[in-house]
Amino acid sequence: MPKLEPAIEFYSAALGLNVSRIIDADVAELTGGSSMIYLLENAAETTPFKAAPQVRRYSRHWTPVHVDFVVDDIAKAADRAIKAGAIQESECIEWRGSKCLTFSDPFGHGFCLIEFVEETYRE
Q1: Beta carbons within 10 angstroms of residue 6's beta carbon
Q2: Rounded to the nearest 5 degrees, what angle is found at the Cα of 29, between the Cα atoms of 25 and 32?
Q3: Which of 46, 58, 95, 105 is deepest in the core (most CB within 10 A)?
């Protein structure tokens, strides 16, 4: 089962997030970005809700929902993430005024770092 403390350590080191509080010993609230981030500790093979047709699996996967972190300097952010234990999974893709790198965290969850030339993607 993924443990909460290593996830807190990774996201604090990789993205400069800070723990603002721990809830019920298995949820960490992290701040430092434009939104609060919550890390939840859930055992493998448990269901996410009572009637779920599948159980949680923690092998590497690509889900329809993943997190993108917008950064000011993608090279510096990538270096920081890698030093914290992230695995870079793609070369830098440039698209509509952005640069994007794909990673997995040490627990197999995918995330991207994105740097914009302007405030968001160009038309």
Answers
A1: 13
A2: 150
A3: 105
